[in-house]
Amino acid sequence: MATFLKAKRRFTVHLRPEDVDEELDNGPDVSVIAGALAQLVEWGNLRADPDTSRVTTVEDFHRARFLYQLTRHGEATEQALTTYDEALGRRGALQAVALTDITDRLRGLLALAGEPDPDPAKVHLLLDSLVGRFRDLADNAQAFMRSLQRTIDLHDTDADTFRAYKDRLIDYLERFIKDLVSTGAEIAGLVESLENADVGQLLEIAARREAEDAAPGADDNDTEDSDPRRDAFERGRVLWQERWQGFRAWFVSDQHHPSQAKLLRNQARAAIPQLLQVVAALNERRAGRSDRTADFRTLARWFAQSPDEASLHRLWRSAFGLSSARHLTADPEQDGAVASSTPWASAPPLSISPRLRKTGSYERRGKPNRVLDRSEQRRYLADLAAKEAAETAAARAALVTSHPTRLSDIATLEPGAFQLFLGLLGDALAARTPGADTVRTSTSDGSMAIRLRVLDGPGEAEIHTPHGVLRGPDFLVEITDLTTRDETEARSA
Fold it and tell me: Which stretches are tagged as biased composition: Basic and acidic residues (predicted)?
């Protein structure tokens, strides 16, 4: 069947048993192949037509010779199996290039929407290409995050190999998150512009162009009075509207539902600390600490290798210490002790002190524990907290602006201030809605606020740091330290 699909991709309609034998290197002989083809014909996967092109004698005419081709059901079954195998082994990827391609298609559609009479061929090709790139982006992102979660959950691998893979993967995730934040905001703006320019007209043009090739009788509900082109146009128009709504929901958030791009960005960000937790677990395992996961795997292997059921029961009792129930008595010599054969429902209740239940004895034995002097550790933690607070205050002071400032005027930032600034800028871009010129947001702890305004005309900003240069569109930004403002208001009050 794979040979017939391969031939169909080469636009070959019919195959003879000899042709199938040539495609199968070191395969069975022609007689075995002919029997297999006959069985596939019986199952409905193939259709057999008499091969009379090579008949030269009466004996050749009476000898069974057939040309085989895929049936509609056989092709659908084989393609479904192929798709199933590809989906199981699919690794997926976060396609930052697809975001750029989607942006280019949207710009082309926006230009066509401004024309009085758009070219139907260009509109249809751009929309079809947009849907194809978007489908690849969404499917690959879903497959990648699914495989990433499997990697996090099933990390039974060499520690050094996983650490090296972790470094590359985190860098990959950070680059995609950066592209998704910048390009995703541009895509959301283009979607809003297209809707203002009546994108429904472009969708109807694409549906009408597809309906031109509608054949009569293609639908089982067709009647003599029905128009196949009109019916195909209505179906296509609804389909293109659904595609556009799905595409819009992927990049544009509404009041009740965040966009899929925002959810993907949050999921990618959450994967980074999970990867770090896996590395920490591998380091603990390498340091010789007890690993309960490895213990249970070893125990499961012992259960699988047990020779009989009696050995399974002995292993169970040895591993978990479970045996038949016995009645507990605080003092075996006291009067009225309950025999072990007495059912639990018939035995009288027994009062047990909380200390006995917790420690196994009525009172603690031995001298009390020596009180440890932890003053040195407290001083170290206090110095560390003061140092971190000073670094954070210095970063805030470096970012606070007394008046609205262009990003291009910031020029350079130290690493601590740059990390804080990058988080503020990402929160502001994520909170920006399509068509909004100004956005204001604050950090999750309520310590700083940022106000971002779009500038007229194109412009690019560069911020230099010891680790590299951040480039992006220029904005007018105003950053406020809310903690300093609150203290000033409190003193004035």
Answer: 360-369
